[in-house]
Design brief:
The complex is a heterodimer. Chain A is mainly α. Chain A folds into 2 domains: 48 residues, no CATH class; 204 residues, MetI-like (MetI-like fold). Chain A has 12 helices and 2 strands, in the order H-H-H-H-H-H-H-H-H-H-E-E-H-H. The mean pLDDT of chain A is 90. Chain B is an all-alpha fold. Chain B folds into 2 domains: 163 residues, MetI-like fold (Orthogonal Bundle); 42 residues. Chain B is built from 13 helices and no strands. The radius of gyration of chain B is 23 Å and the shape is globular. The chains are: A mainly alpha, B mainly alpha. The interface between A and B is large, with 96 and 92 residues.
Amino acid sequence: MRTRPIASTAVLYILTAMVVFAFMLPIFWMLLLSIRPAQTNLTVPPTLFFRPTLKHFNYCFVNPGVSFRWLVSSLVISCCSTLLSLPFSLFAAYAFSRFSFRAKKFLMFWYLGLFLGPPIVFLIPYVIIMSKIGLVGKYLSMIIVYQTFTIPFSILVMKSFLDEIPYEIEESAFVDGAGRLMALFRIVVPLALPGIIVASMFSFVFSWNNAAFPLVLSAKFTKPLPVGTLNFFATTGITWNYIGVSSIVTMMPPMLIFLALQKYIVRGLTFGAVKG
Amino acid sequence: MKRKYLPFAFLLPSLVILLLITLFPLFFSLRNSFVNWNLQLNPNPMGFVGLSNYSIAFSDPTFTTALGNTIKLSFFATAVEFLLGLGVALLLNERLKGSRVVRALIIMPTTIAPMIAGFIFRFLYYADGLFAYLFSLIGIMFPKEGVLGNSATALLGVAFTDIWQWTPFFTIILLAGLQSIPTEILEAAKVDGASYFKTFLRIMLPNLTFVTLIIVMIRFMQVFNLFDIIYAETMGGPGTASRTLSYNLYYRGLVEYNIGYSSALAWVMIIIIAVMINLFTIVGFRGKEL
């Protein structure tokens, strides 16, 4: 460990404080926006002290509670799209981790490509296809479209976890007469449980934060939070305090999940490529 | 079952569903790119037009503006995020008291939905907003239409929202890279009297090459595809000052309902992205085992 003079240690602390300030300020300002009286929203100089009010929260989530509907939609869409992707990705991750076959590298790059490719190119064909089969405005349309990123993401992340489980454990089960599927469910799945949880949590966050697809696929009662919040940018005027409330509530679940998954953030955000 | 086919039995369910939900829409849009189809005029395609949708794109000044904006935005945002992120990672690597808490806090912007981040910054960028006031204290004046209302600064405003969101991503990942360097090596360098700068250049940086390549690739692509922040903040405006390829595609397809033309735009974008991904992976994953 490097020993430092006190003066340079002080400089480092000040720099760190400035960094934290810069990254936290916008979030803090949004939090204030959600509880401040509207006349203090945009003042020069900005108002830091005011009498906090919960009336914006009340308007958004209780009476009439317009945002509540969007919260329910967000939960339904994100949970369903995560759950739907799990069985598909578990089997595929197992195949990628345990076998080597000719198309392996090609398929893995294709899945990575689905992630890095522009989601917007899917928007127009999906609007047409979904309206042809009568799914526009229904939860199912978004749940299906989200599989384009939840499945490849979960496959790559789960594979990185499965790679850490020694193959010998399964082999000893084969010797005892267990079949592949039995070994998978009795031995691999319990050991890979952390990986399955991490993959689903991140899938949930990506689904929760998606706004481009529901922008065109959701209807009045199926809008998730980020898209519903656009309603507050009405032509009659932007109601910033309600946007503040809706935004703060939208931010909460992903923030809590990231706090809980500290150890796995690096792996999740690089799709399993960097173990961290 | 023969061992050779076993992996495909496990892969089949996901392969079938992914082919169905990704390749089918892509080929559908490839077909659409060769027809004249505007939903405002006709619910059905109005005849085969060959490559004319593609040739329109390259003579359309909005498209070339969008392409230019996208390239500027991707290079600028990715570069600033990497440099700032590396700087903060080096700072947190000093293991000051409370750096664990700082690390947990600092990643928060990355967790936020880009659409929501767009709302936050749209509020902060107003001429009578918080940023205008803070910057006026150090003598920087914001345009009177606000950052996003001025065509000289709108794209910069979009870039800084993305930089705020994703610098912590670089920090967290580069920090993990720095902390995986064995302390013995760093101690040895110190015993040999190497300066911090020399240690950074000779030991830390070489250890970060592979992760850097991966995250720069991921980020560059994501900024290249940026849509949500633009939608939330500027809708590509004022005029076309902050219009990117993604927003242009959305506008042509779902505001003007020109399905044929926007499908051609989609395929131009797919080809650009495919070339970039291949370049990155050829360089980055050369000789790597998966």
